[in-house]
Design a protein that fits this description.
Keywords: Acyltransferase, Lipid A biosynthesis, Lipid biosynthesis, Lipid metabolism, Transferase. This is Probable UDP-3-O-acylglucosamine N-acyltransferase 2, mitochondrial. One of its GO terms (cellular component) is membrane. GO terms for molecular function: N-acyltransferase activity. This protein is 21% helix and 27% strand. It is built from 5 helices and 33 strands. It has an 11-stranded mixed sheet with strand order 1-2-5-8-11-14-19-22-25-28-31. Strand 15 and strand 16 form a beta hairpin. It starts with a helix and ends with a helix.
Amino acid sequence: MALRIGKLATLFSGSYISAFSSLGFKKLNVRTIIVSRLMQNNFSNQHPDLGAKTDDQEFQKWCNGGGMYHKSAHIDPTAQIEIGAVVHSESVVGANVCIGSGTIVGPAVTIGQSTRTGYNVVFSNCSIGDSCVIHHGVAIGQDGFGFFVDEQGIMVKKPQSLKARIGNHVEIGANTCIDRGSWRDTVVGDHTKIDNLVQIGHNVEIGKGCMLCGQVGIAGSVTIGDYVTLGGRVSIRDHVCIASKVRLAANSCVTKNISEAGDYGGFPAMPIHEWRKQVVSVRQISKEFWHHKKT
């Protein structure tokens, strides 16, 4: 093990060593340097706009956890930034926050107090409320698809100037992606629970107390009321409004507005009792067809 560490240490150029020495990292071990540099390089490749702002001279080691932070960031002394995590310029990290290893907090991001993140989370152009739980591999505030058709019928990249705003006591499952807004902020309300592998597009507004099960896909500019439940693999087309206290069965597809509370299912989504009647009718017709064919 000692030989491996020694070999890895020789990979660093003199400029890296002098840069870390100038920052006062005399007791920083080789493993900490390796992890931090690998995470910053990987982030720079995937996010060149943010990576271009990374300068070794501007970053320092955080005292609690060993991660890196920009000197212009505002971090509460009780926050923990684990090894390999990086907090970029002008970001705000509240009290008792725990930022997992490999997490990237982009410039001007706000993370409320008592929030916990898993590893390899990416925050950019977003604000996170208090007491949130964000699991591994989540991306919040990204550009996403972000294309639209202009007046000449040409598909162009839409400018991304707004944010994604996550409320208080929100839980976001692993590998979920929440895009930032393009004409209004993307919003996730307080006490909402989001399962794994959920995609939330630009400009989506989700009310408080909602529950989104695994593999839900929500297209851009959707508005969802309070206390809505989306079963597994529910899909919602763009520019659709869903009223409060709606429950959608798994694998449903919403293609138009739902204006009344209740249970819905099917493709396209309809009141649950109508969908069940359709399912029974299709089964009955199928049985009659095969019986007639046999006779």
